Amino acid sequence: MIGFLQYAGMQVGRRHFDLRTLDWLAGALRSGEHTRHSLARGLCERTGWLNALGRPCLSAAAAALPALAERIGIELPPARDMPDPAAAPAVPACDVPDTRLACALEDLGPVSLDPVGDAGDRRLWVAMMEAHHPLGWARPPGGQVRYWIRSERHGVLGGIGFGSATWQLRARDTWVGWSADARAANIARVICNHRFLLTPRVRVYGLASEVLRMAARRVADDWEARYSVRPVAASTHVGPEHDGCCCHCAGWTVAGRTGGRRGEAGTVRVLALESGWRKALRRVDRRPVGTLASAYDGTDLDWAEREYGRTGHTDGRVRRRIVDMGRAWLKNMGEDLPVIFPTKAEQKAAYRLLSNPRISMEHVLEPHFEATADRCRAEPVVLALQDTTALNYTGLEATTGLDGIGGGGKGSVGILAHAGLAVTTEGRPLGLFAMDAAFRQDPEEDSRRWVEGLGRARELAAACPDTRVVSVCDREGDFRDLLAHAADDGDALLVRASRSAKQRVTAPGGGKECLWDHVAALPPVATTELTIPAAGGPRARKERVARLEIRTAEVGIVPPRRDRGADPLPMFAVSATEIEADGDDPLHWLLLTTERPAEGEADAAHAATVLGWYGRRWTIETWFRTLKTGTRTKDRRLDSADDLRKCLAFDAVTAPSTSPTSPSSPGSARKPPRPRRSRRRTSTCFTRCWNRRATGTSSGCPPGRRPTFAPSSSISGASSAPIPPRASRSPGRERSGRVWKGSTGRSRSVTPSARESGSDSL
What is the CA radius of gyration of the chain? Predict the structure, then answer.
């Protein structure tokens, strides 16, 4: 194992190389038995780096080798001398096509585009471009499709060639309107017409536009047959010496002007090859959770690199900046941004990243999701908790893009965040596997966040084949679409039933009856006693011991009227009803789950397991409260909601996660007593404990030890840490440059909103 490597692997472009791959490369370089070509082939074989045809991406791997070799500190073998292309047999000048022709298009006869064939045919095509094209010939990188322009009567009239699109072209990118992630994912579906030539002595009016139309009709099929990727759009550059009339007649649209590679001003023209091209090019296929190799390999790892270092952003500078910001965020947890980044250069870099529209919340959270999957692989059962919380930013009057969060005409604005937290059956948090803070932008599909969260849990289960992942939702998740997705895809789902959903089940006699009435009529299978802790607030209660009756049954959920004719959904119902409540509101849980008793397992034992799983749901409520108070994410002040979402991503990864004191108690589903809080600043003792676990040598996962949600998983009582007061100035009123006034220092006074008993409640 390479002992001098500090971090977990390395990322080149969008591809991540784990530590084992770097270890193999170091051994191969030390042996001195490999050439650069064999190293590139071995790298492709170890990492599964293949193109759409299933062939190794040797050129891309060879381009990544210098960066990898520099990382491990070993030089690459010297590059071998390659055959000089100029040494190939030259094409005699007399063989280069140069047809003399002047006639009308209708007198030309049949014209065809014939693909360029073998090596000799390709050399002749290149010689023609070198001899007659104003730009000569230089082979562009990537794929190539070339055609001869032939007339049945007069032979070769010219040629046309298409190649892979350039990575960046401002006019084209503006025309498409895609993001940096969409461009990286779909650039292979755009091609470039890099050469088009009619030999100088061919004078046929309308022939150029006709050739362009013929090429547009067949190039997508030919490209797909050769590279297994179907292009949907094409671009070309028209030099200043041409007016582009033939392109205009062939349907090519002007996208904008460009300076060109040699400084010549020109016009960029684009053409759609397929209907729905814009939607196809703007689509971003998110990388599934857990697709990267595990970062836990027995070495001491840097916490920030593990939690932030495997992002899919295409710019390496952005990836490094996210890691550096995450490290500073942890060191100054709960502070304002000018305190987290004390120097002007750091502040400028941080604000620039937060306000960059090409960087999203997903870029910050994506590597943390991978780290969560690493920790989940060491557990036999993982509970994927889902819930939604509201962050109130009503006072930020200058901030744009905030969502409405206040029901009943209150007019409150802020951010609604739907999070997925993975925990063990003992209540130990493992990290986030999903977070969506923009679902309110499409209010007609407000419930899609639950279905997408279930899909993320399915990805987590696929990444952890030896771990059983069970999705756990509160009553808001009791709706038909979510239950149907879980039943159809075989997902493990546990939902608390809601009376407002009015679920009906099939009765024994073939009729339909209310789910609640059906389960209440069943005989109890067990009775248990559980301690319900005291709680304060509007629904204050004293501590008591509750006696619960357990009922279980396999039920078929009847489809709603809009889905008339669909089959009932098979679910397993578990009911826990308190008896002898002595005047208090009796507890009554009715849970629906796709998990059925194992063979030979008693119904009472299965019900106890399901109730224990749901009892852990309060862990995410504790995490929400800690996120709001421990990291002070509700006190951030930025120009737009997107900037606040990126701050929320850093706060979510940095937020302390605690284990509830009694997570299996049914009473934990209600609000626990609010801990007493101090008016002083954040506890230095707690901060030192946090930073000691974050930056110490124990952040790695030695062999034989389970990975933890370092640095916070084993810190108990973090949610009762003293909460620093809010700044006295009302946010959103004044600012100086990118830094809000009053951010660097906190006043001892407390605003009325901070005194409200429910200011940090869920």
Answer: 32
What's the pLDDT at 711? 47
- Identity of the residue numbered 98: D
Residues near 29 by beta carbon (within 8 Å), at least 6 away in sequence: 39, 69, 72, 74, 75, 76, 77
Residue environment code for 157-191, b if the CB has 16+ CB neighbours within 10 A, otherwise e = bbbbbbbbbbeebebbbebbebbbbbbbbbbbbbb
**Whether 647 contacts 633, CB under 8 Å:** yes
Full DSSP string of 219-239: HHHHHHHHHS----EEEEEE-
Predicted local confidence at residue 140, as pLDDT: 86
Chain-centre distance of CA 238, in angstroms? 38
Contact 698, 722 (CB under 8 A): no
What separation in angstroms does the CA of 671 have from each of 622, 754, 761? 10, 19, 9
Dihedral class, residue 483 (left if φ above 0, else alpha if ψ from -120 to 50, else beta): alpha
Cβ burial, residue 98 (10 Å; 0-12/13-18/19+): middle
Residue recorded with tokens 């055959």: 83
Reference 206, options 111, 107, 109, 105; nearest CA is 105
For β-strands 468-473 and 381-392, DSSP reports them as: parallel
Q: Which two tokens stand for residue 669?
A: 């589903």
What is the pLDDT at residue 176? 92
**Helices 641-654 and 361-376, interaxial angle, to 10°?**
20
- In DSSP terms, 473 is beta-bridged to 495
Rounded CA separation 134/136 (Å): 6
Question: CA 368 to CA 648: how far, in whole Å?
Answer: 13
Q: What is the 3-state secondary structure (H, E, C) of 398-460?
A: CCECCEECCCCCCCCEEEEEEEEEEEECCCCEEEEEEEECCHHHCHHHCCHHHHHHHHHHHHH
Locate the DSSP E strands across 464-525.
468-473, 492-496, 504-506, 512-514
Separation between Cα atoms, residue 314 and residue 52, nearest integer Å: 20
- Name residue 429's beta-bridge partners: 423
Q: Which tokens hold the place of 306? A: 């593990």
Neighbouring residues of 61: CB distance < 8 A, sequence distance ≥ 6:
40, 41, 43, 44, 49
User: In the structure encoding, which two tokens stand for residue 457, read together?
Assistant: 């849990």
Joined together, the tokens standing for residue 761 give 């409640």
Q: What is the pLDDT of residue 51?
A: 77
Q: For residues 413 and 403, is the Cβ–Cβ distance under 8 A?
A: yes
The pLDDT of residue 268: 92
Alpha-carbon dihedral angle through residues 236, 237, 243, 248, given to the nearest 10 degrees: 20
Query: Which candidate, 756, 721, 743, 733, places its Cα nearest to that of 631?
Result: 721
Separation between Cα atoms, residue 264 and residue 563, nearest integer Å: 62
Say which amino acid occupies 304. Answer: A
- Give residue 704's pLDDT: 47
For the chain, 762 residues long, the average pLDDT of each consecutive 10-residue run is 44 75 87 88 86 80 87 84 65 81 87 90 91 88 91 90 90 89 89 93 92 94 92 91 87 85 77 92 84 59 82 84 92 89 93 91 91 91 94 89 73 90 92 90 76 93 92 91 88 91 83 88 85 70 82 88 80 88 76 87 87 89 88 88 93 65 32 37 36 38 48 34 38 39 34 31 24
Cβ 183 vs Cβ 216: under 8 Å: no
In degrees rounded to 5, what are phi and psi of residue 564? -60, 135
Assess contact for 557 and 505: CB atoms under 8 A.
yes
**String of b and e for 714-735 (b: at least 16 CB within 10 Å)?**
ebeebbbbbbbbbbebebbeeb
From the number of C-beta atoms within 10 Å of its C-beta (0-12, 13-18, 19+), residue 737 rates as exposed
Neighbours of 316 (CB within 10 A): 12
Question: In the numeric block, which tokens belong to residue 390?
Answer: 């509201």
- Angle subtended at Cα 706 by Cα 704 and Cα 708, rounded to the nearest 5 degrees: 145
